[in-house]
Write a structure and sequence with these properties.
Two copies of one chain form a homodimer.
Chain A: H1 6-11, E1 14-17, E2 20-24, H2 37-49, E3 57-65, E4 73-83, E5 87-96, E6 99-109, E7 117-118, E8 146-152, E9 168-174, H3 182-188, H4 195-200, E10 206-215, H5 219-225, E11 230-240, E12 243-252, E13 257-267
Helix pairs in contact in A: 2-3
């Protein structure tokens, strides 16, 4: 028997009733405070995907980080307040010690083939095997779970307050081979280090407060990509009075837009 | 006594208990099926803003359109599952006849002055008074509630299937003078006609399923703009198997980014 992938262990949920689960944070995804938010987002989505009443595949997911998770156990609940013929709406909450630590909503749908086109073309970038691995050592544990090759907008090597563009482009995939699926896409959507650090070349305390992911690729195309590289791009739009947002895209190496995402992040000072 | 603005009547809520309200759809905002989604989004936000336990001002709002509202009464509930020192998280639901028609989450915060910068500059566009009003008559009632002057990407004059760019830029404001506030920004975020109509110059059945708004301007700067023009810009990112997304920005005429928004929309065929 092969042991499960670290990511699957981290997002594992044990059902205790219909739509009710227990889970636990994973030291493998430790961040500055609490776990990597991308994994917590994946847990919220997993609570939907494990639900026996699930209809279709994820189209939209919004997670709200209400508080930093403490290391240890949590509970998750997912309920579908509305099920239509081909779409379903979900409300999700994660709690620790009876206190809400995440609220979330999701929309799933039975998708049909239609006229389709990518309108945000993948930028022209060097191939993954021509981009070097970072020379800096990760400051937090979860970063070791991914291979990240920065094309543009890597973590500043000097925190000199100079800064510039808020845009990052990087090739990214799991460090240990694992095929892409909706949960790993949800996590990848949160893989970008804080735009305010890049824009200002200054480390200030930060925390994502809300993230939305729109899934443009279904389960089958994601599985076909397997452990392939994903091109991630993120760019801030506004930094204002303690909160900034960013807009992000994830493409397959073949140039298909897999997901788009947005988040709003608290920053101090 | 002056009569209230049509928008205020449409988003009005009568409290029935703490965080519980009744409201009713307004014929002034009728869309193809049910009311203009932007007004329903504003109602969800209003349920938070009217709550006696409210902390701070809105930073993030996500609304999920579970079903078209029927003309008539609805109930709204807003509860704050988590209140921190300076942020608060909200879960909102709208229902008709006991069935959920909208789920939503919001985050409010007591914002402090910090280092701030707009990173998505307002595009260079002609001034509002140099852009003509549309010559086409609105097909739906709610459009009459706004003045819209299209700079780029107006509603196709010929539905010939040719299409092109999915980007729209327009100057927009309420037709009847009303000062900007969070609820009107939430509604303006949904003012863009469906990108799929523009991209394909083809009318296909559509419906927004989820929309997120990040508020970058506080109540005071919004009030200062008053009844000023707002520059709206929206562009699709992907059309795929029945759903497309768009990313949108709203700037003041003075060039300040007031809000950013994203939505995912169902389309048939």
């Amino acid at each position: 028997m092969t042991s499960p992938h670290t990511f699957d262990t981290a997002i594992a949920l044990t059902p205790t009733a219909e739509g009710e689960y227990t889970g636990a944070t994973s030291p493998a995804y430790a961040n500055m405070v609490g776990p990597f938010g991308g994994v917590t987002a994946a847990v919220a989505l997993n609570a939907v995907l494990q639900h026996p009443a699930l209809l279709g595949e994820p189209v939209a997911l919004t997670v709200n980080f209400c508080a930093a998770l403490a290391d240890g156990a949590f509970t998750a609940t997912a309920r579908p307040p509305r099920t239509n013929r081909s779409t379903q709406h979900w409300v999700i909450e994660l709690a620790q010690g009876g206190e809400t630590v995440m609220t979330a909503t999701a929309m799933t749908a039975a998708r049909r083939e239609t006229w389709s086109v990518d309108d945000e073309p993948m930028p022209t970038v060097p191939a993954p095997n021509t981009v070097p691995d970072p020379t800096q050592s990760p400051q937090v544990e979860w970063v070791n779970r991914y291979q990240m090759r920065f094309i543009e907008g890597g973590i500043p090597s000097e925190w000199d307050g100079v800064g510039g563009s808020s845009q990052t482009q990087l090739w990214v995939r799991e460090a240990a081979p694992r095929s892409l699926d909706f949960c790993s896409i949800a996590a990848l959507a949160d893989v970008f280090f804080p735009r305010v650090w890049l824009r200002r070349a200054t480390r200030v305390p930060v925390g994502t407060v809300s993230m939305t992911v729109y899934f443009h690729a279904g389960a089958a195309p994601l599985a076909e990509i397997g452990h392939g590289w994903v091109l991630g791009q993120a760019r801030a739009q506004a930094f204002r009075n303690g909160f900034f947002d960013h807009t992000a895209q994830l493409w397959s190496e073949g140039g298909h837009l897999l997901a788009t995402s947005h988040q709003v992040v608290y920053y101090k000072e």
